[in-house]
Amino acid sequence: MLRAGAEYRKREQRRQVLIPCRMKSARGWGDACIHNISSHGMMVASDDPLAAGEYVDIRRGRQVVIGRVIWHRDRFSGIRTQDVISADALVSEPRLEGKPLSTAARDDRRDVRNRLVSEIDAARRMERSRSISSALQFGTLCLFGLAAAATIAVQVGHMLTAPGSRIQQALSIEAHATH
Fold first, then answer.
1. Tens of pLDDT along 126-141?
2. Measuring CA to CA, which residue among 88, 89, 25 is closest to residue 56?
3. In the chain, where do the E strands start and end?
4. pLDDT band at 114 (very low <50, low <70, confident <90, very high)
5. CA 90 to CA 81: how far, in whole Å?
6. Is 130 helix (H, G, I), strand (E, B) or coil?
7. CA 67 to chain centre
C-alpha cells in the first residue's frame, strides 16, 4: 500500500548478461558471475556469501569495478557502484586466467623478476669467466708441456749424438788405419 506523499524513483534499466568474473571480498578472491548490469550497479552470483555493507572488487580482464553490497539473497547480491559502469566494456573484455595482481604484488613480482634476471646475468658472467679461466689453464699447461717436450728432445738428442759421434770417430780412425 502506498503512503500519501511518498516519492519513488523510477527503477533504472537493467541489461541481462552472464559474465564470469573474479571478485575480491573480505574473505579473498573467488569466482563470480554478473547476471545484470545497470549504470550504477549489478547483480552478482557467487558461492561466497556476501554481507550487506561489504565492499567488493570485481574484475573482468582489465576492467575493475569497486562497489558496496546493498542486498543479498542466497548466492545473489546487489552491488552499487560509485562510478558509472560500462556494460559493453565488461561484456567485450576477455577474462583473465588468474586473480589480478595488486600494485604491490606487481612490484614484488617485478622485483623478483629483476632479481632473477640479475642472478642469471651473474651466473652467465661467472660461467664465462670459468670457461676463460679453463681455456687459459689449458693453454698454459700446453705451453709447459711443449717446453718440457722440447727440452727433453734436446737432451735426448745430445745424449744420442755423443755416443754416435764417438762411434763415428772410432770408425773413421779404423778406416784410416786400414788404408
1. 888 989 999 999 999 9
2. 25
3. 15-25, 28-38, 41-46, 55-60, 63-73, 76-81
4. confident
5. 14
6. helix
7. 32
Q: Quote the CA–CA distance of 99 and 138 in Å, as a whole number.
A: 54
Cell numbers of 111, please?
Answer: 622485483
Backbone angles phi, psi at 99, to 5 degrees: -70, 145
DSSP conformational letter for 93: S
Predicted TM-score (pTM) of this structure: 0.48
* CA gap 22, 82 in Å, rounded: 19
Concatenating the DSSP letter of every residue in 101-122 gives PPHHHHHHHHHHHHHHHHHHHH
Residue with cell 572488487: 57
Nearest CA-CA partner of 44 in 71, 9, 64: 71
CA distance 33 to 37: 11
Q: How far apart are the first and last CA of the chain?
A: 158
CB 64 within 8 A of CB 57: yes
* Three-state SS at 47: coil
